[in-house]
């Protein structure tokens, strides 16, 4: 059975201080999508690079699951399934950054002076 949560189910207070408060959000979108807008404090590893870079996750808090997010939920579902099969505790964030943005969750852009957006 797939582990899934919606952005609304993630505690707002923790989201503002990712990953300091233990909530780990892994964004598996491509570089241009990430640069346009992402959750503050999220970890960015594009899905295609995840197998080669999975070792980077060992530095994250291990007392919480890794919440995996993409644009709409498809890539993150595949990445979460792969992580779970590889021994990690991963949860797919359903609806992805599109739902994240619609629910008014905090976002930042890598482009100074430009409002963050989901592309």
UniProtKB/TrEMBL annotation:
Record domain Rhodanese: where:
19-109
InterPro entries under this entry?
Answer: GlpE_sulfurtransferase, Rhodanese-like_dom, Rhodanese-like_dom_sf
Q: Which Pfam families match?
A: Rhodanese (PF00581)
The cross-references to SMART domains, in alphabetical order and at most eight, read:
RHOD
| Region span, Disordered | 100-119
The protein here is known as: Rhodanese-like domain-containing protein
């Amino acid at each position: 059975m797939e582990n899934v949560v919606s952005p609304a189910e993630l505690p707002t207070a923790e989201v503002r201080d990712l990953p300091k408060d233990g909530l780990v959000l892994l964004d598996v979108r491509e570089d241009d999508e990430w640069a346009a807008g992402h959750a503050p404090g999220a970890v960015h590893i594009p899905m295609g690079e995840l197998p080669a870079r999975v070792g980077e996750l060992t530095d994250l808090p291990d007392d919480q699951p890794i919440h995996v997010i993409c644009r709409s939920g498809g890539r993150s579902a595949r990445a979460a399934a792969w992580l779970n099969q590889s021994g990690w505790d991963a949860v797919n964030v359903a609806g992805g950054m599109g739902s994240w943005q619609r629910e008014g969750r905090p976002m930042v852009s890598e482009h100074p002076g430009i409002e963050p957006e989901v592309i």
